[in-house]
Amino acid sequence: MKPLRMAVLGAGLIGRKHIQTILSMPHLADLAAVADPVADPCQFDLKGAKWFSDPREMLDRIKPEAVVIATPN
């Protein structure tokens, strides 16, 4: 089975947990991109995933199969 291409929208506390979970299961999921308008991408080891500050640009360019929305409520 091919890994699911995923993206994470929001790199705060919960978003970081989702990023780590996706990265820990490469046989099931591939982290394609992360989008967050305020977080510093230098804080993350994304293993080759792309970083975007604009979520719409991320969706337009990456076209993930699934997106985890981890933004504040």
Compact description:
Helices cover 26% and strands 27% of the residues. With 73 residues, the chain is of the alpha/beta class.
What is the string of SSEs from the N terminus onward?
EHEEHE
Mean pLDDT: 96
Q: Uncertain runs with pLDDT below 50, 5 residues or more?
A: none
Percentage of β-strand residues: 25-35%
Largest sheet: 4 strands, parallel
Helix run count: 2
**What's the number of extended β-strand segments?**
4
With strands numbered from the N-terminus, the spatial order across the biggest sheet is: 3-2-1-4
What is the multimeric organization of the chains shown? single chain
The helix fraction, in percent, is 25-40%
What is the approximate shape? globular
How far apart the termini lie comes to 34 Å
What does this structure look like?
The protein is α/β, with parallel strands linked by helices and 73 residues long. The protein has two helices and four strands; from the N terminus they run βαββαβ. The longest helix has 11 residues.
Features:
73 residues; alpha/beta; 4 strands; 26% helix
What is the element layout, followed by pairings?
Elements: E1 4-9, H1 13-23, E2 29-35, E3 50-52, H2 55-62, E4 66-69
Parallel strand pairs: 1-2, 1-4, 2-3
